[in-house]
């Protein structure tokens, strides 16, 4: 401690002398620009005072082999940040032009929202205008044409050509055609379908046809009940369709007989071309009902729970599919009802009692009758 | 009577969402329903812009055209309002609305829609003005009190304008002229078939 203080005292006059020199002209040899590492005076360990290595042998490293130096990170191409244009120069977005473009070319004007309902990010969707046209014009006009057209055609058929009689007359003997399960399932689907159709027609046409007649309040009550019925009855309808797939799909597979049946003229043929348990028209209706029913059911369920389709465009398409499918199916079923009741003698009792007249079966489903008769003969032979 | 409209000046909107909050508070709007919302286009990118959007009270309103029970009605001010006692919550107005204005509480069967709720332009519903039953269904009726919609009245940057369509259009045109830019009146072409120069 004492020695340090003495050394400090010795240095003091020296420092004073240097200070005096600094005040005048720069000392000779002093650098004009101060270097990063300041030069050290000879009195404080200059070049000669540095610690000398005791050996000239190259230094050996301690602590084992040094790890390889880490490779420098390759340069990532960075997009330079462009300064945004000044406010006055950035009015490139023109709301009117944007809306016109979307209205003509489709698409939506979309952005981000800070509320949980992310579907609200769609600012403007001009497609709503097209959907409006579908709902107020296309579906109503096309639906009316399809449904009324079917009814008119069938009425014309009934009054001009008359119902299809059993040519040979009733035989008095009957043949088992549909089991209890088949019939119950058929009527479950039928009742559901009729009510689904009526409530759907009410949604589509009721505003124009029924509301002026029964008044706004009564119409709302009816339509409110109707939409609940529509939703709940979709379940028996779909379950029934699945059961129909299980019990009737095998007998409805297309076969060569069907081609011959169609070539012979189908329902318009002279006489009765041979057919199996179901003829080609019945098979076509069957597959149409299964396929159309599945489409209508899927699109309907997607509309039923709005959470399933959180996009307004998809909901519009689901409605278009549902509405068109429903109209076409209703027309087809109106035809089915006509043929199954007043259009064909002896047809309705098949679904009512499960048994058909032998002559009816022989005329309309000759191959099926042969099958049944052969089977009965085999059973009888087995019993002997 | 004047033709009432909304106009959002997107060069002024700062996405503070105060209009959304004010609307919800003024009308005690149910949970999960937003009569008004702020949409930000190009969020986080240069040139992003925010637009406050609600029912635009369209001329020849699509919602009214597609409603299966015809529950919509117009007012002298050109507003498009609806009667919740007649609404069946079918969702058709939402499909047709270009602005996504109709909202539905999820109370129906299978998580379905309840009676539709949308911006009333602070004009309530078909019941007697400022009655308790009107407030329960539609919120307050500021128009009947001689006031304009709250969202526009309290907009801090005066981005959202409400009032007579001609007056707010002239205010906006003046702004565009003074500052030298503007993106136009969002939704006006779609709602009113009217174009404001940008």
UniProtKB/TrEMBL annotation, chain A:
It is found in: Cell membrane. It is a multi-pass membrane protein. Its main location: membrane. NCBIfam families: formate-DH-gamm (TIGR01583). Residues 1-19 form the signal peptide. This is Formate dehydrogenase subunit gamma. InterPro entries: Cyt_b561_bac/Ni-Hgenase, Di-haem_cyt_TM, FDH_cytochrome_b556_subunit, Formate_DH_gsu. The chain crosses the membrane at residues 138-160, 187-209, 229-249, 284-304, 316-339. It comes from Belnapia arida.
TrEMBL record, chain B:
InterPro entries: 4Fe4S_Fe-S-bd (IPR017896), 4Fe4S_Fe_S_CS (IPR017900), ET_IronSulfur_Cluster-Binding (IPR050954). It comes from the Bacteria. Keywords: 4Fe-4S, Iron, Iron-sulfur, Metal-binding. Pfam families: Fer4_11. Transmembrane segments: none annotated. Residues 4-34, 78-107 form the 4Fe-4S ferredoxin-type domain. This is 4Fe-4S dicluster domain-containing protein. It comes from Belnapia arida.
